[in-house]
Amino acid sequence: MIMNWMKLIPGSRTRRIVWAVLILLLCMAPLFMTPFRLGLFTKFIALAILAVGLDLIWGYGGILSLGHGVFFGLGAYAIAMYLKLEASGSSIPDFMSWSGINALPFFWEPFRYFPVAFLLGILIPAALALILGYFTFRNRIVGVYFTILTQALVMIVVTLFVGKQEWTGGTNGLTGYRDIFGFAFQDSGTKIALYFITLAALIIAYLLCRYIVNSRAGQVLEASRDGENRVRFLGYDPSRFKTFAFTVSGALAGLSGMLFVLQVGIISPSMMGIVPSIEMVLWVALGGRGTLIGAIIGAVVLNAAKTGISEAYPEGWLLVLGGLFVAVVVLMPSGLTGLWNRIVRIFYRQGGSEHAVIRKEG
Amino acid sequence: MRLRSLMTKGWAISLVCMVLLSGCLSEKEPATTTSGSNTQAATEASGETIKVGILHSLSGTMAISEVSVKDAELLAIEEINAAGGVLGKQIEPILEDGASDWPTFAEKAGKLLQQNKVAAVFGGWTSASRKAMLPVFEQNNGLLFYPVQYEGLESSPNIFYTGATTNQQIVPSVTWLLENRGKKMFLLGSDYVFPRTANKIIKAQLEAEGGQLVGEEYTPLGHTDYSTVITKIKEAKPDIVYNTLNGDSNVAFFKQLKDAGITSKDLTTLSVSVAEEEIRGIGADILEGHLAAWNYYQTTDTPENKTFVEKYKAKYGSNRVTADPIEAGYTAVYLWKAAVEKAGSTDVDKVKEAAKGIEFAAPEGKVTVDGDNQHIYKTVRIGEVGADGQFKELWNSGEPVKPDPYLKSYPWAAGLGE
Questions:
Q1: H/E element, B381
Q2: Which residues of A touch B106 (CB under 8 A)?
Q3: Contact across the interface for B97 and A348, Cβ inside 8 Å
Q4: Cα angle, residue B295 at apex, residues B291 and B300 outer, rounded to 5°
Q5: What is the reported pTM?
Q6: Are residues A139 and A99 in the same domain?
Q7: Same domain, residue pair A48 and A143
Q8: Which of A183, A313, B220, B375 is the most buried (most CB within 10 A)?
């Protein structure tokens, strides 16, 4: 029975056992964490979903996006709009009346319904990624030029959201909701349920990305990272594969944003800005670009470090965190996963072949 | 093969360690239940000391303003502790950094309430940070003292507002300007919630009190090029520029205004976010003669203020200045102390009940907690910047003004904020 169930997990037998134990441990997390810590941990896991998607395009596709804050934010706003409407009851959201409009804008209407809001929270960022990807990759805009475009996207969207205060809540963002389907966010039951939902979403996102990178499409994607022209000579159109990966990545960022809002209870334009977008890339870089598990570890470790260090040294935590960044960049150029691989190589110099170390883990 | 499986194992081990580590971290803290029970825990878990949270931006763009407020709050706590504490117990401040980031404010507020079980939190500056913390305090039945003037239209049962609401700063200053400096007004503000809401109120007031709106401009936060705005001001020929710019933009605006040859003699400007601290940054020579509306200046003439300024400078350096939000943060700690002593407990509900009508001789003069909306009665003051960077008071309301965050007592404000 258990063995059958474990066949769902890919890889060798040892690998399966390791994963099963790990997932079991994660499932037991609510037992040994206070509700507050569990909430924080859930937030880190939600952000890890974005990191996996970002790693898909950066680690495997060689596309550096400094605009993932936007996709994240769009997903977050979608669910926040639903929650805000729920919290406002029959009247319009409070910030609209301050800003001088008396009727709900038409595009807010669909967000009254949870399934619609949920789907739009994934589809809108995915569609935006699709459009951006389609027009840039097809025109062979690559490398740093694409990265600059994603930064421009951030500027445009943030300015729009700040400026249209009557529609978006301006710099304050959307906040002031306290329950979903009548379950208060503060109850430990809700927290545990959200934890498992978020954990399940992360596992699905991981398996999806794993499936993609191991598929033929993933191989073409990786090949076009290393030699785009060669891929083209072989008769493939790299732009289609890149656009596809970028769209998936955008959708995952949207999902991540939705789960983030459920934990944090606020979304504002500052969270989709340039600094958070760069921070997201840092998670992947620190964890180990090109290994999906590295992206997850990077997101969780870095955010946990941010919270932990700022609690321990509220007045000097940025210096400590900055020092750690420098140390990581200098000592571990390929991130935490790279460090691990190096340690393994040192201990197993005689046993293992170099090849096995270099090959990247899924 | 062996290598691969070892690598996998290693990964798993490190992940497991991580999970366990975070588990251990959380174990150290008192494990308790969640919602609503914070009030009780705060009284019981205090033991020798009473814990309070201090939650301001100690890093990021807002740090320059908020660190001074934190200093003033710590000064008040130190004074109270030296005088024997509260209910015979010493106050233990727990510092957290909001990092100028609104979700961080929400996260740290949750940490202070749920992990540290603090009896009260003093913190926040921007409206956005307050809005982010509000649901956290309401859900955990915590107590927040918010020390900055703001746009009103809010009254949370879990927040005490020790800064001014609109009828204690903006509304009376507009009336004074219309009576003394002319009718044509130009509204200039940073593009965010406070200026937009403030200007909405001012526009309704101008209509009711016979003023005339000749222009309205918003610039992004941190904007530094005001040449086009100044050209527009020149064309509109206002009597008054009502300035709700925030932060660095003020430096740029006033410098460029002076460079354009416009001085305070040619044009009256009144700012609501320029205090002594900002004057230090902009330069007294540039701001000389310009006006501001607040409830407190370092020059405010009360015996309490003399002592306060002396103590603040003695602790933090003679080059430091005090300003309105700094004073409001200092006052907040004493108001909380008075309420706790009256209640005989740090239980949030009891403290709230006891706080109604509590009076305190603050540096700004007598303040009283309003029983209905948890704002405080404050004296309104209009000041003019002098060559020394200090304000000279031109007018004050004579007595503390009753807070009216929803402007219910002003017929023209009907419909602004429901």
A1: strand B381-385
A2: 175, 264-266
A3: no
A4: 85
A5: 0.86
A6: yes
A7: yes
A8: B375
